[in-house]
Amino acid sequence: MNYSKGELLYEGKAKRVYSVVDQNDVVWLEFKDSLTAFNAEKKAELDDKGPINRNIATYIFKYLADKDIGSHWLESPGERDMVCRKVEIIPLEVVVRNTLAGSTAKKFAIEEGTALEEPLVEFYYKKDELGDPFISDDQIIALKICDNKVVLDELKKRALRVNTELKALFAKANINLIDFKLEFGTLPNGDIVLSDEISPDSCRLWDMDSNEKMDKDRFRRDLGGVKEAYMNVYNRLLDVKSQ
Ligand code: UDP
Fold this sequence. Notes:
The structure is a single chain. The protein has about 240 residues and is α+β, with helices and mostly antiparallel strands. It has helices at about 50-65, 100-105, 135-140, 150-170, 215-220, 225-240; strands spanning about 5-10, 15-20, 25-30, 35, 40-45, 75, 80-85, 90, 90-100, 115-125, 175-185, 190-195, 205. Strands 8, 9, 10, 11, 12 and 13 form a six-stranded antiparallel beta sheet that branches. The chain has a five-stranded antiparallel beta sheet with strand order 1-2-3-7-6. The chain has a two-stranded antiparallel ribbon with strand order 4-5. The longest helix is centred in the middle third of the chain and has 24 residues, at about 150-170. The two termini are about 30 Å apart. Uridine-5'-diphosphate binds near residues 93, 102, 104, 203 and 204.
């Protein structure tokens, strides 16, 4: 399909969203080089981060499509561009954890890197001005963020399926998938699909041998080598494909 980029609709922290000329049901996403953390209190520009994340997100959406997990992704035309089905984003950040890390490890005073016996799914209310607070299942229903419990259970089920597939994929790349964040959106026909992006900005990825961090924590914690780590993730995923 030939898509041409229309007008800017919205600029987010990591992406710009454009309309697509003569196509009301799709949007054009442009991956920026900006890196932000701590609710955008910490900001930087990193050359080529946009194209690297666009490549990784494209790889992952295609990989999941092959496993029958649909997403909003349609095509990736330019080096930092992605054409996606237009969705209404459900304002939840769906976090899956395999290993405790970051603020959660701190909150419960458990050593970062402690593996969980079973993956854990958590929801955060997506609202920048509130700093994306944790939200309980009952609160999601009471506040009508999801229509009903069936939809909420479906989100959990999907998130766990994505986890099973991605954990296996990253393991082949000798990477331990510690945790990650997903977003889902609703299509005009009511179907729910995986949306936004999956990249080292939204995942914690540790080298399986050294536990070295290969994700946005390198930026959050001033560890340096952010771009090299993201490139390394992509190159390892490409190696998996050619295996
Ligand atoms: N995450 C994200 N966007 C957010 C919050 C979290 O992509 O707004 C990702 C984060 O990169 C990590 C996972 O979700 O891979 C779990 O994050 P956590 O809740 O542990 O947050 P933190 O420790 O950074 O406060």
